[in-house]
Structure formats: structure tokens, C-alpha cells
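Need C-alpha cells for this chain, all 56 residues.
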Amino acid sequence: MRACSGRKGMLLSGGAREWGDLPPAARNVATVIKDLIGCDIDIISVGPENQQTVFV
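Here are the C-alpha cells for all 56 residues:
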């Protein structure tokens, strides 16, 4: 099991358009998931709209 910061730090990620725009907690969770699945993450959705997509 691996611990990482949770949702509380990711609540303001909806306006993100680039990797650097994501809150540190969101970047941390994405990195943990990438490491666990052993595959790069290319797209992160930060909301329900098409424009709310971060291409990593």
C-alpha cells in the first residue's frame, strides 16, 4: 500500500489546463497511479466539460 495526499488538496483543479496548473495533491495522485499501473498518463479530466482536460 502506498499513501498519498487525498481529495481535499484537489478540489480546485477544474481550471487546470496544463500539468503545472494542477494542485500539488492532484499531481501527486496522478504520479502514484502512474507508478502503480506502470503506464504513462496522457490525459487527465478535471471536470465534465471537453475544455476541462489536461494533456500531460
